[in-house]
Amino acid sequence: MIDATLSEATTVAAGATTWDHWLYIGVPFVVYVVTVLGLVLAGEPGHRTDIVSVLCAPISSSLRRLTGYPGWAMAGVLTGLFLLGIGVVGLYWDVAYHIDFGRDEVLFTPSHTMIVLALGGLIVTAGITVLFATLDGDPSVRRIAGLRVPRSAVALGALGLGGLVAFPLDDVWHRAFGVDVTLWSPTHLMLVGAGGLATIPLWLMLAEAKPDAEPTRLGRGIEALALGAVLTGLSTVQGEFDFGVPQFQVLYYPVLVAIAAGFALVLARVALGPGGALQALVAFLVLRSVIALIVAGALNHTVPRFPLYLAAALVVEAAAWLLGTERRLRLATVAGVLVGTVGLAGELAWVRTLDWFHLSPGLLPGAFVLAPLAGVAAGVLGVGLGRVVAGGRRVGGAALAGAGVALLVVLAMPLPRDVGEVEALIRLRPDGDVADVEVELRPADAAAGATAFGLVSWQGGGRVLSELDEVGPGRYRSAAPVPITGTWKTMVGLQRGSEVMAAPVYLPADVEIGAAAVPALPERRTPFLRNTEVLLREAHDGPAWPAAVAYLSLAVMVAAWTSLFAWCTGVTRSDRRSGGPRQPAAPSAGTTSSPAPAPASWAT
Asked: Which residues are CB-contacts of 556 (< 8 A; sequence separation ≥ 6)?
């Protein structure tokens, strides 16, 4: 499948940053400012005269009227979703650029700037939330040093801080080990993890405010959007699979799909009630479709595909319909198993239909063992987070701890990337800039039971994928021609079990890093190498301490973020457990009731 085939001149032009690329940052912020001004003009003015109150009071009243949620919650959620939207477009733009063109020419690209603004903006968003909660004087929000500080705002700020700290660590990593263009280095996982997990405290912000809310249709739609954003955030770590050039075992794909679906869709069903998983799914599909249209359409990069999660959403709804949601641990277990089996079958069929990365039947045994385990563990954590939603038996701490450990084990199992003793005889039949490829493996049964096997080309202005069809014992022929000239890189990929290998077909010389060319010879015999030796030619060995610091920082941040999520769910107010808005106390006999006074913060 050819995503893009560009001439050299077009490739250079498409890879360069032009002034109009910066409009992807400027225009959204102009829209945001205009929207804020509209809320100011449409709202009810406060009685204080300081400039902050003059601006914030009408915004808060407008948001309360339009959504039914307290103004502080909606100010934080909408600002956070806006900034994360900027950041996720920047992320997929950046990954697409690396797939299509390789290393960045400059540091401050529009895509990098969008990611920095999004992560730094999370701290600003936390501050906005605290400001509005304080000025609203919401008595349900914890008071700290004279400020009203929502728990969700603390978690959001911590995620933003962790994401920003990752930037200097990322620079240290690259100086030590080279420019490894991978999504899964520890510093990149900090960046992507901070943004992806930040969607969780945004939803928790709505849950924290819900006892004092009477959601309108718009407010309920924004909650569904927030849960769709959670599914989107958890799916960002699948990025290398989305672009069809994975550097790790393809077994990670079903595991990551089951984790995202098991957590977000079960949570959505608990939080939104019947149809909740489907509502979150619709929001996810809209968000990912918009991202794909921007990256592949407007920016002319490789299309970032994405899982459908349709089968998973349907089985979650079916499990909740049959079992109810009262016994949430049971729901999480059954729904997780279904997500990891029926839901996974739907996703694998979707991948095969679009053929966007190589999958072979040898993947199925491992996938249908690990994915149900991942789905159950994620589902249990999802209902554990959903304890802030009224109704149903809470999941105990032992079950949540067990689910967390199980999730770590499942994620660790596909981690090895070994190399087997396999040799390839590669023959080319050139036709201009492309060639048909024949591959003869030794031993001949080397691809038997493979989890992935095929040809992939990248960094020539797009990405090209071709299956290898067996034409004889140990002999394979490409289903489509692949590029063998210019800046393209082409390799044969072979995965079987824990072995993740590649054999180069054509690689251009890279003077900047001192890498020699692998020319497109009519015939060449070569051993299979670890695939990173072909995919990450820029990477090199370095001192041990930067790796130790990076991995330790990642572990500390994940532990801190997880603890904050647990703290956010520990709200014990009786009215928050009741799941409804606070009601004024009933007047005693013989007394005359009077309306509850409005919050005094704007009037004092």
From this structure: none
